[in-house]
Structures are given as structure tokens and as C-alpha cells.
Amino acid sequence: MASDVEPRRDERMIVASDEMVITFDGASVKVRDTLRTAHVSLYMAKPDEHGAIRYGIDVEADCRRNMQREVASVGNRTDGSSLTLPLEPGDHDFKPVPHESFGRVIQEHLCGIKGEKVWKGGVYLYAPGDMAARSVFALLALGLENEQAAQLSSYIYTDSDMLKTTLDAQKIAPERRAAVMKALDPQIAPEAKPPPPIIPFASAVATGHVGKYVHSEMELAAGLWLKADGTFQYWLTVGSLDETAKGSWTASGARIKLVNDHPVKPPTITLGPATKDESTSLSLKIVTPLGRGVPGVDLTVGLADGKTEEGYTQADGWTLPVGQKSEPRWVTFSMESYGLRSPRFAIDLRVANALVYVLTP
Predict the structure, then answer these.
(1) How would DSSP label each residue in 137-188?
(2) Pairwise CA distance, residues 174 & 157, whole Å
(3) What is the CB neighbour count within 10 angstroms for residue 6?
(4) Is 248 exposed, middle or buried (0-12, 13-18, 19+ CB in 10 A)?
(5) What is the pLDDT of residues 83-130, one digit of tens each?
(6) Is the domain covering 11-124 a CATH 2.40.128.710 domain?
(7) Where are the domains of the chain?
(8) Are 196 and 159 in contact (CB under 8 A)?
(9) What CA–CA distance (Å, rounded) separates 149 from 141?
């Protein structure tokens, strides 16, 4: 059956600066000997002298000669109109790539791609490129690191868990989160945002009256629903802590007693699919039972020489740094704020080097 839904572009961010965001379409990459071609998008913080805020460019890189040329280029203005710059003699010729330039970043990235069916690198965009670029500029203006801005701006946040987990993964301090979420506002669904306060929390709960009570302040949101049938629902989000509970309640004077139906159990991590991937020495990925990548899980990899390699997962996983010669033998995962500490999982590269683990809440 035909679908009217436009397929998602394989857009990947390779530059996140306060002047320009550069992405390329992974599906457009062609590899022919030492030549690489790809469709590249340039998003600018401010319109240029032609009024363009974005350019789509078909780039061809000659990796052997370290030269590059533009095959085609179309600009877009803020009003949605497009423009094509007049051609000058030699515009489509190969030219040397200057050092310390955005063109050099494009050249090095494209020339690092060894085939059309291998991992192409960059930060994969789940959000539209123009939206992600605007968020990058806003986040960098707050003083965030380039990598943090790129990762945070790459998603559309559909629920509060996803938003909080990504903020945790990028190590955003609690006192900065309100400003970061404001910068990301176009990418955060209404249901992912903390609800506004209804009435003062402490005084309302102290009365023991039936009702819904919500409280929010910088980096904290909490809610309690005392129902007329004697049951309650509760949730709390503060920093990296996320709690929910339901059960029964009773009131005695100014005191309210809540009895949770189910004791809190920490999440668990179990071994999932294990395969071979020739494009990397070792990749580790944490997914939910539905298969969605989980960022922000701390990991420790034990090496054959007795040393360890530490890091944390992104949504697309974690890979062993290039240049690490000692063979990995085991891995453990942890999320201290959730009480999660996995067992030690053995690693045997002769069997598999692309390992997936399932996080069950």
C-alpha cells in the first residue's frame, strides 16, 4: 500500500558552531575510488549578504589530491524563497581545501567514509535540520560545549523520560536545565514539559482534602492526586531522579499517610543480540524492551592488560576508542540515580563485537 508520509532523511550533523551548522545526507554519499560525493546542508546563524539562511550543496571531494568542488548549490531565505547564485568562471572546478575551514571539516569527514554501506559518522538527526540548527545556536549562546549542543538538538522529545534521560547523558547541571529546555522548546512536545503549578503543594496536602496538587520550581516538578476512593497517584522529577507511585492514603489531622502498592524495584540490564560488525572493534548499545536506544548509561570495559576504559552510552550506543590496542574482556553498566548496577558481562570478540543489552525498567 502506498504511503503519503515522506521518508526520513538520513541527515547527520558534523559541525555545530556559533556561526554555522553543517550536515550531510548519509543516503546521498557515493564512494568511487578516492572520490566522495554527498549532499551537504549549511545552516547559518544569520542571513548572509544574499539574504540566505541555508544552502544545499552537492559536494565532490578528491581525497587523493585533497581538493573539493561544488557541483550544485541552492540557497534558501528566511521567507522560504530560494536563490541560485550566478556562476563565475571556474566555480565548478576542483580547488585546494584551506586549513582551519569548514570545507576542511567536510573534506576530512567525507574522505573518512570507506564505503556506501558502512557507518558514516556524524550526529544522526531525528529533528528537522533547520530546527536542530536553531537549537544549536541557542544552546551555544548559553555556553554549552559543541558536542552537547549537537546531541541535545538532534532529538524530538516526545515524553519527559526521554528529555530527562538525554539531559542526564549530556551532564547538564540541574541549575542550567531550565535555560536549556527553553532553548530546546520547539523540539519538546507539550506532554514532555512539566505541568504548571495549580496551588501551593505543602499547604494543600496538609489539609487532607481530595484533589490534584502540583508543585514546580527550578529543575523540580512534583504531583500528587488524592482520590475520593482513598487511592493516590504520585510523581516526582528532580535532577536525575524520577519517581512514580500509586496506592492508598489516609488522613489524621494535618498528616497524610501514603501506602505504596508496589515496592520500588531497580531496573535490570540483560544481554540482547550479539553480532559481528567489521566497521568497528567493539560497539555496545543499551535499548529498551521496545528497541529504543538509551543514552546516559555509565559503562566500564575491562581490558586484557588489567586496565579499564570508561564512558557512557549515546542513543546509538558506544564504541571502543580508536587506538585502544588492549582487547576488551568484560563490561559493566550503572546508573547510580536509578539504583542500577549490572552484573559483569563477558566479551569475546571472536564470537561477536556488536553487543546489545536490554534495559528493563
Answers:
(1) HHHHHTT--HHHHHHHTT--B-SHHHHHHHHHHTT--GGGHHHHHHHTGGGB
(2) 18
(3) 6
(4) middle
(5) 887 777 777 899 999 988 999 999 999 999 998 887 788 999 999 999
(6) yes
(7) 11-124, 201-260, 268-360
(8) no
(9) 10
Residue type, 239: G
CATH architecture of 268-360: Sandwich (2.60)
Please, what sign has the CA dihedral across residues 46, 51, 56, 60?
Answer: negative
Whether residue 286 contacts residue 294, with contact meaning beta carbons closer than 8 Å, is answered with yes
Give the phi and the psi of residue 214 in degrees, each rounded to 5: -130, 140
Q: At which residue does the C-alpha cell 494535618 appear?
A: 254
Q: Global pTM?
A: 0.55
3-state class (DSSP) for residue 215: strand
* 15-44: burial string, b at 16+ Cβ within 10 Å, e else: bbbeebbbbbbbebbebeeeebbbbbbbbb
Quote the cell numbers at residue 28: 546521498
Nine cell digits for residue 141: 549562546
* Residues 12-63: tens digit of each pLDDT: 999 999 999 999 999 999 999 999 999 999 999 999 999 999 999 999 999 9
Burial 69-78 (b: 16+ CB within 10 A, else e): bbeebebbee
Cβ atoms < 10 Å from Cβ of 257: 9
- From residue 32, how far is each of 38, 81, 108, 194 by CA, in Å? 12, 34, 16, 50
